[in-house]
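Annual report, structural modelling task.

Input specification for the coenzyme A complex:
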Amino acid sequence: MEQDRLREHVDTIREVFSYIKQFSGTTFVVKIDDVVMNDPLFSVLVKDLALLHEAGIRIIIAPSAKERIDEVLAKYEVPYTVIKGVRVTSDEAIPFIKMAAFDSSNRVMTMLSANGITAVIGNWVRARGIGVIDGVDFQSAGVVESVRVESVREMLEDGVVPILPCIGWSSVGKPYNISSNELAVVVATTLGAEKLIFVTARPGYEATSFVVPETVPVAPGGRLANFSLADLDVFFAANPGRELDLELLHRARRACAGGVARVHILDGREEGVMLKETFSNLGSGTMVYSNRYGGIRPMTANDISDVLRIMKPFVDTGILVTRTEAQLEETLADFIVFDVDDSVHACAALHEFPEGLAEIAGIAVDEHFLHLGVGPKLVDFLCERARQKGLRAVFALTTQTSDWFRKLGFAEADPAALPEKKRLAYNLQRKSRVFLKNLGST
Ligand SMILES: CC(C)(COP(=O)(O)OP(=O)(O)OC[C@H]1O[C@@H](n2cnc3c(N)ncnc32)[C@H](O)[C@@H]1OP(=O)(O)O)[C@@H](O)C(=O)NCCC(=O)NCCS
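The model returned the following structure:
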């Protein structure tokens, strides 16, 4: 037991080092909801941001000021309306909005200073008024036109954390109130950020609140944990008219389409959320990815020890047959792995037989990635591979996973349906059941 705990710690330390290596020198844009700033754990969140900075990650912060603006406008009795999620005020309100926006940015700057980090609040954003749309004059509300990227880059190179308030200035210096969410997306895409992180005051998206198509994975507890861009499009189509509820996911889609590798939507009130999300595979919010997450790739010799480790608990309980390092080496080309950030979390193999059949074998998913649709994805991938080879069906032998294969469209078959070599080697003692899936012509 003690030994297991120790091994887990060592695994965690290894994981952290590999992430530091991966992310050092990359840019994270962090949008922080100002509601989070009132949370007792906000100072811990800023401390964690400081740690990321110290690990060589370039941090840019876009603090929102929605709550603070509400407060200030209420205090000075300045009227406003909200149309399609945009605050509309007269130009006279702008000095109050500016004051609130800089207040919010100042709070972040002060806390970063308390952690020994130099931060600068800047006017790097060029904006223009939204103007009149469908007869509505949006007055002091603006949209981001451009960001002075070179200046922001210089700050980052000097080890400074740039803070961008939700204000943009026109070419003649007229200030506009802009959306921090939009600003964060523009900054992340124009700077080629690795990550865009929305720190919110709510948990990630929950499946129960939406229509969730079958292809979209739901994590235990009902969280919509991760979306590929393709998943997102299917999800949006299944939830028409919910654009405002899904604002951050729409923004995430734009950011990923613009080259950001991952967008995370986190609950900033959860202790350690930033570190968990960055330095481990145990994300707790909702993530949208445009790159290798969900990355199935062929197994290489370097992966063999990881694959043996992932299989071990299932071998120990008799669910999988024992495989040696030499056997894996011999069948290297048959195996695929599921890799996230250069660490392997699942494996599977396709062994071909001359009768136009192939066996799907050795499927195993490690404990951190169970129930997320990884297993079905591996099976799908192998079925596609078999189809491309012109095979007519795939089969699997299993003692304890029958229902799972049924769910994936496999039907129980007689051992006589097995290819000859497999039939001769069929282990009567193990009493595996045979499951078959015809591949069809497409
Ligand atoms: C079976 C396995 C590959 C599923 O991987 P996964 O990525 O978690 O798959 P899914 O995302 O579809 O989630 C698994 C679903 O199947 C169910 N399931 C898991 N094991 C099952 C089993 N033995 N029998 C029936 N259903 C099972 C889970 O309860 C879950 O259902 P839910 O999403 O409704 O909660 C994984 O549990 C595993 O590695 N098992 C051990 C090895 C094994 O059995 N390999 C297959 C034989 S070659």
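The CA atoms of residues 308 and 323 lie 8 Å apart.
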